[in-house]
Amino acid sequence: MKAICIATGMLMVFSSCSYKPYQTLFEPNGNITSNQPNKFGNAGIYKIKPEDVLQVRNLQNLKFILEDAGASAPVTGGGSNATGQAYPVEQDGTVALPVIGHVPVAGLSRLEAAKAIEDIYRQKLIKDPIIEVKIVNLKVSVFGEVRAPGNYALLKDKTTLIDVLGQAGGITDKGNEKKVKIIRGGTDNPQETEVNLSELASLTNPALILQNDDIVYVGQNKRAVRNDKIQNISTIVQPTLLLLNTALLLFTLK
Length: 254
Known about the structure:
By secondary structure, this protein is an alpha+beta fold. It folds into 3 domains: about 1-20 and about 225-250, no CATH class; about 55-135, wza like fold, CATH 3.30.1950; about 140-220, Outer membrane lipoprotein wza fold like, CATH 3.10.560.10. About 30% of the residues lie in helices and about 20% in strands. The protein is elongated.
């Protein structure tokens, strides 16, 4: 009976162990050249494709674009708002904009598309326009040990893994910062790479520049996995020990 009580007490101690954070990020390792394999190549600048959704606004006169937005059918779920109007890129690679009509944008970067739209508005309608274009349908999915998992939009060029993890609230105390996985290529050609964020050299890895539909996964570190296993064992064993303890107590009272 004494042995059982001791075992029960030990299990309770192990099951109540609190996890202490021990993450170390971006530590110099004496080698500033990334030692991570680069399976993805340089991400470069995203080129607009049919079915993309562009958000267009004139920074010189935001009111103009918004008031005339009715000339073009808004994207479902879009519409005019304080940040601009959303327009779909059609299969022929053009985007239909108020007053100026269809503008070819497929194959252009975000900045190149803004310049092309700006030039046409300047020629036809607006004095000194400053056009801003965002591609609002691009996203990455973040799962695992981050504080706010979910989908995050890639609204700027060369958004990095660090940017997105920051938006997701950072890695939790249970996260393994040494093996952050990036999965790319979709179901047709999925590729996976691991990034070690505990080393400063990881910041030079081209894979950190995220692409549309990337999946970022942060798994648990060894200590968190071990604590979970202890907790699971404790959950199973504790009722059994309690039952045995009760049975022995009843037996000694006879």
